[in-house]
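FAQ

Q: What does a record look like?
A: Structure on top, sequence underneath. For example:
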């Protein structure tokens, strides 16, 4: 590419912008004065956003969305033709793994191919999606194949779902580009959001994102493995954890046990493992531990209760606390295992609308045993004399916990 310079970015398109990553980013940058176009194929979700309603739970977004719509700076479309009018195109699509736990490269390639076919010389293409190592440089080669003079940057999102609007302006932004100019343009964009910039080569930026989620996933697996060991010894895992972490700095990273789920942790660990010739055996073992936890809990219950005539209630079906996202939630795997072992399974969740779910009151009244699936605030002070399995150690000590004895 030539050494020509470009005016500051003012028009931004967010591809996949109606999702959990794209929509908070679009709202924030529109609030900051950018002219923002959300491009998404989900017409139903776009209509909901146009009406001023958020399609999912995100802190402070219910108030921000109508404010941004009133400015006229937020536009919504399902047509990719809108990409040509932008200075910056940000891709925020999900990058799932397939049935073999390998990255679904074809879906990503299809979106990128469509995106590039509507871009023009001089634009900046920024990838926020999680990708496996080497994808950014490969994308740079694809741009050359399209004979496009487009700068390519990779800037992984790092937010915790539900806290995006706060973290986007507080957390440092990792920035990389296939050329120094691409990285410079991406850095300038985030500096306008007053973010601290950490610049890396593309391969290191890709690894930084994958290392972060894999590290957390493996840490959760360690805690879950220790929980299983404590249960087999008839010990209280939370009491042991409190003993080894209290005023002991070297153990402050010891995570609590619980369902390690959601759309990122397992997926990113498997992405890191997929093309590394099984070198990441630690990640694969973590997957077996974390994904096996629902089965372990049910097997432990079976050693103390005849489940066949009983009704078991699952408190929380979202993948994490105070969240309305059920994607990859292990509560659904728990429900599947319980369905084969007990008379009836009741599920409840205050954030997820599902006609198959029951109210909290009905779940408490009709269940013989309860299992905490997500640590929603609504459950913290529940009153019941039913045995409760609480692998998270979330409920007060007064409630029945652990092995449901």
């Amino acid at each position: 590419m030539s050494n020509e310079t470009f005016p500051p970015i003012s028009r931004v398109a967010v591809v996949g912008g109606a999702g959990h990553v794209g929509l908070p980013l679009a709202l924030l940058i529109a609030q900051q004065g950018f002219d923002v176009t959300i491009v998404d194929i989900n017409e139903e979700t776009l209509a909901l956003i146009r009406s001023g309603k958020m399609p999912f739970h995100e802190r402070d977004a219910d108030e921000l969305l109508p404010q941004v719509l009133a400015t006229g700076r937020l536009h919504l479309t399902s047509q990719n033709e809108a990409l040509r009018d932008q200075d910056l195109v940000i891709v925020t699509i999900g990058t799932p793994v397939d049935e073999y736990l390998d990255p679904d490269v074809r879906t990503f390639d299809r979106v990128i191919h469509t995106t590039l076919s509507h871009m023009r010389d001089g634009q900046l293409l920024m990838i926020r999606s999680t990708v496996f190592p080497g994808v950014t440089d490969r994308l740079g080669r694809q741009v050359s194949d399209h004979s496009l003079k487009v700068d390519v940057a990779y800037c992984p999102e790092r937010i915790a779902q539900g806290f995006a609007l706060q973290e986007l302006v507080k957390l440092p932004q990792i920035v990389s580009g296939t050329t120094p100019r691409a990285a410079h343009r991406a850095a300038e964009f985030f500096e306008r959001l007053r973010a601290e910039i950490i610049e890396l080569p593309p391969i290191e930026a890709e690894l930084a994102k994958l290392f972060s989620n894999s590290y957390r996933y493996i840490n959760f697996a360690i805690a879950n493995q220790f929980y299983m060991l404590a249960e087999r010894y008839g010990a209280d895992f939370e009491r042991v954890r409190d003993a080894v972490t209290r005023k002991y700095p070297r153990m402050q990273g010891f995570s609590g046990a619980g369902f390690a789920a959601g759309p990122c942790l397992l997926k990113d660990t498997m992405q890191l493992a997929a093309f590394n010739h099984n070198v990441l055996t630690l990640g694969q073992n973590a997957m077996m531990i974390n994904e096996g936890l629902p089965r372990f809990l049910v097997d432990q219950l079976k050693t103390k209760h005849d489940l066949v005539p009983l009704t078991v209630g699952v408190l929380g079906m979202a993948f994490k606390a105070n969240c309305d996202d059920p994607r990859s939630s292990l509560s659904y795997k728990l429900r599947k295992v319980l369905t084969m072992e007990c008379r009836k399974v009741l599920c409840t969740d205050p954030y997820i609308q599902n006609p198959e779910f029951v109210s909290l009151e009905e779940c408490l009244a009709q269940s013989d045993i309860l299992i905490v699936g997500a640590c929603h605030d609504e459950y913290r002070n529940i009153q019941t004399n039913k045995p409760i399995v609480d692998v998270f150690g979330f409920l007060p000590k007064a409630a029945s916990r652990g092995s449901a004895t």
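Q: Is there anything notable about this one?
A: The radius of gyration is 23 Å.
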